[in-house]
Amino acid sequence: MSERRPVGPAFLISYAIAYIGAFLGVAPLLQILAPVHAAAIDPAAKAAIFSQAIFYGCVAAGFGNILGGAISDRTRSRHGRRRPWIIVGAVLTVASYAVLLWSRTPFMMVVGLVCFQLAFNVLLAPLIALFADRVPDNRRGVMSGVLGMAYPLAVTMGSVIMAWGPQSETARFATLGGIVLLATIPFALLSREDAPPPGEVRALSSGLSPRSLFKPFANRDFSLAWAVRFLIATGYSLVAFYLLYYIADAIGYADLYPGQTAEAGHSLVMTVSLIGVLGVSFLVALAGSRIRRRKLLGIGGGVLLSGAALLLGVTPDWMLVVVAFVFYGMGQGAFGSIEMALMTDVLPSAEDRGKDLGLINLAVTLPQATAPLAALVLLEGFGFGFRSLFFAAVACFACATLALAAIRRVR
């Protein structure tokens, strides 16, 4: 295996910007633009349209993530393996926004989200693989802490942009497209990546049989880490996807604060959540390699997430919702700050990093497909309305915490 080129602060900072920028392209889309677009197509069937589009889109995301990682593993280029596909994925992601923007029927909205998820994951898979390729062990704690802020920061920034930025749908999509291109393309063009030795590059079809593809699951710790990420992501999805509807319908935010929209309430709770995320993530990044027990930090995050989701499920009071999201953010920060390092630590082989990280990322995309289906059952069958989603999230976070405690390779 080739020796890693030393990385300096410039690479680490630009990588973090690209990573956060990429997630800014997806978080507000799934949490704000897609629900609003579904409501514009048919207000009476908005939840069903949105759930169907999310389901098929996320099935495509799982396929795109594994394929994007596998192709980058097998790419031979003087520009490296990962960087060309980051550029291709970014351009295709922006093009997919146009497909979604112009959709006027439920079927075309499904097509738009499928195109988006395929394109976005062609960008995301090689971008994440670069973490394993380039970041040395002694800097993974710091970088994992920084990257743990990425998704919550993207959610909050995206929510604020959607609430207080351009209000036309076209301008909102154009804003997201500009952010994705400005964050990722300069990084891919200007960063350096060694071309892998010939022995590390294989034919595209090699190692992609069903048996080889899922071989990492024979490793106990890999399977447990996958389960942890799947359960955490399912809980996140149950909370996030229908939060706008929860604020509007279950809390009645516009009635509590006349003249304010549900989007404004959404941006408020996302902002206070971000305060918790940044506080914990900053402390973890500052401590860096001095943190010897990553697993305990993740377990603490799981406990905080469980408690916050339980409070959201039982309280009718808006101020307690805000308090719950402070603790929710702290839980996200604690778990997210060790997530990337945890997933990298359990990879069974170096030559299939991209593909195996694609499998791990499948644990994030699958819940985005299954959570809407579970939500439809919970919303119609248990009589608690949107609050039932938070009770299900409690179960997911608690089970994830137990699975994390069982991983042996990570202290």
TrEMBL record:
Keyword Nuclease recorded: no
Family annotation (InterPro entries): MFS, MFS_dom
Residue ranges of every copy of the Major facilitator superfamily (MFS) profile domain listed in the record: 221-411
Transmembrane segments: 12-33, 53-72, 84-102, 108-132, 144-165, 171-190, 224-248, 268-289, 296-312, 318-338, 359-379, 385-407
Keywords tagged on the record: Membrane, Transmembrane, Transmembrane helix
The protein's name: MFS transporter
